[in-house]
Amino acid sequence: MKFVQFLNQTIKKELLTFDDKVVMYGQNVDAASCLSGLTRGMSAIENVVPSNSQNSENMLVGNGFGMMLNGVSSIFFMKQLDFLLLGIDQITNTYNIIRQHEPSASFTIFPVTVDSGYEGPQAILNNIESFCSIADIDAYSFTNNIDSALILEKYLLKPGFRVLSSGQRLLQSDLLELELVYKDLNLNFLQYSSGEDACILCLNHSLPYGLELQKKLLITGRTASIFSINTHSDFNSEFILNEIKKTNKVVLIDDSRGHNSSLKNLSLKIHQSIPNSKVIDLVRNKSERLLKPYEDLMKVDYNAVLKFLISNNIK
Amino acid sequence: MTYLKENILREIIWLRLSQIYINDLYKKGDFKIPIHLAMGHESIAVSVDHAMKESDSLFLTHRNIHYNLARLKVLKEDLDEYYLKDCGLGGGMLGSMNLNNLNKGIIYSSSILGNNLCVGSGYAFANKVIGNKGVVIIVTGDGAIEEGAFYETLLFLSSNKLPTIIIVENNGWSLGTKIDERRGKIDLKGLSNSLGVDYTHLSGNDPFEYLKNIQSVREKALINNAPVVVEVELSTLGHWTLHNEDNPNGKFINYHAGPAPEVNLNKNFPLLEESNSDPLYVLQAYMKKEELLVLAEEEMEKIISEIR
């Protein structure tokens, strides 16, 4: 099963169990490919009001807040995250007024984050962190069966506003099927395995890289705890810090292209709380500018990471 | 003169006096927040207030004092909000540019040019989804119609057949620039009609003509399930002449926000212009000047006793 099919099923499940009407809107949500299958079949659900919208993202974001003020919940699906740039004024200003009072309705914007350089220059914006940072909003991203199901169940139709997203590349990939070891109460992070030799923390859509590293480490007879960091805001990292203290070896992976990644905050917290920890940050080469279409996968030198972990007296 | 007619005259005078009262406090440095006074906008605000039904809702701009006061009909709560007091209309959280009043159907006021158009149209769409009747009235200006959001909103309202009134208060200025100093002409009627939206033009500040027109436009919006654009020509009064080294002969400054330095509270009739651009001047067609002066004295007394 492709990840997009799983998300489609999960969202439909949430819509079916929701008591009130939900306006599902955005370009092509109920036409043509239905956003490459993401919204397919949702309009058939009784309480769903579908609206194939015009291309007016600033207005459509404002619409969502207007519906929220009128007690109507909505989900604005967006094929590519960069369209949300046109709505940032509404997110920054309108929401900051609306949030003064607890809303009775829900408004979720669900953009697909473009993380393939073949799509063009918009791939430079390959995470939702910047939106979260500009307007101080709640935002969650997901990559697999566990985090997507839990986050959609908790947040998709919860009163209030948030942005939920996953990566375009992942959506068309086979579903990553994992098992849950631990979940943070607010789903800011989730743990999928518990290991004895290192801790791997994956931000944005980098979980596949973390799983690959974990696999290579296992070949050497070593195990790693693996986490996804799903929130793009600051969060209570005490649980993760305690987990790191067990091995004092941590690998932070972030495939974001932005310069204000929360990896820096997390890395700082680890250094401050566990001064003797060995930390390696795997990030994109920010000097590689996206000037022409290309695959834009993050280059990870797994051998170098393994060497670093092993040379730091890992088992 | 009927009771309703006299009431409308009183409300326009009271609205002017209330703003001059606020202006006096503003000049003393009483407010930390920016306030955009709307002297000269009284006729349209009072007309909209009288045309609105309980099921209707109003979405305003940063310059919203005239609608907020016209709907509220008392000054103190509004004033307390400008002082950011807990007992203010918005609990001291909204200030002036975002001031709303849910009890009076003012759902949202945006400090950002054009944002209320989008929020209002979403509210109107939600009305349709949940089967609420009533008209959504969105106020905007000749500056905001330059934003893409204006076009996007008209298209959305028309496409979704939403009963709405878009009131474009055209005062000819955006901040410190006149229309012809910043852009080419917008044929608002042509633009509206091209999107299948009806258009009505109001000018002259006659509150009774305005009320009749707004009532009729409201009916039309409801019957046709469609938006209507109402362009209102008006002047934002309170201009002054700046004299400094760069402008030894004086420079005309159109009022935008803040205190109007040359507008003062006094015992005379609070007229600011001897022309139809001042809604209070227009009232003389309906009542003698001496009678209007009596009304003004009574309304001023009302304000003083309320604030006291």
Cross-sheet strand order for the largest sheet of chain B: 2-1-3-4-8-7
Give average pLDDT of chain B, whole number.
96
> Approximately how much helix is present in the residues of chain B?
40-55%
Tell me the radius of gyration of chain B. 19 Å
| Shape field of chain B | globular
Order of helices and strands of chain A: HEEHEHEHEHEHEEEHEHEHEH
**Strand share of the residues of chain A?**
15-25%
Question: What oligomerization state is this entry in?
Answer: heterodimer
Radius of gyration of chain A, rounded?
A: 20 Å
Poorly predicted residue ranges of chain B: none
Number of strands of chain B: 10
Number of helices of chain A: 10
Describe the structure using short key phrases.
heterodimer, A: alpha/beta, 10 helices, 33% helix, B: 308 residues, alpha/beta, six-stranded parallel β-sheet, 10 strands, 42% helix
Tell me about this structure.
The complex is a heterodimer of chains A (315) and B (308). With 315 residues, chain A is an alpha/beta fold. Helix content of chain A is 33%, strand content 21%. Chain A has ten helices and twelve strands. Chain A has helices at residues 3-16, 57-69, 88-98, 129-135, 145-155, 168-171, 207-219, 238-245, 262-273, 302-311, and strands spanning 22-26, 48-52, 73-78, 106-113, 139-141, 160-167, 182-183, 189-193, 198-203, 224-229, 249-254, 278-283. In chain A, strands 2-1-3-4-6-5 form a six-stranded parallel beta sheet, sandwiched between helices. A six-stranded mixed beta sheet of chain A has the order 7-8-10-9-11-12, with helices on both faces. In chain A, strand 11 (249-254), helix 9 and strand 12 (278-283) form a beta-alpha-beta unit. The mean pLDDT of chain A is 93. By secondary structure, chain B is an alpha/beta fold. Chain B contains eleven helices and ten strands. Chain B has helices at residues 3-27, 42-51, 65-72, 76-82, 115-130, 148-159, 179-182, 188-194, 207-224, 279-282, 289-307; strands spanning 57-60, 106-109, 136-141, 164-170, 173-174, 177-178, 198-202, 227-233, 240-242, 251-253. In chain B, the strands form three sheets. A six-stranded parallel beta sheet of chain B has the order 2-1-3-4-8-7, with helices on both faces. In chain B, helix 1 packs across helix 3 and helix 5 (115-130) runs parallel beside helix 6 (148-159). Chain B is globular and about 50 Å long. Chain B starts with a helix and ends with a helix. The model of chain B has no long low-confidence stretch (mean pLDDT 96). At the A-B interface, helix 2 and helix 3 of A face helix 5 and helix 6 of B.
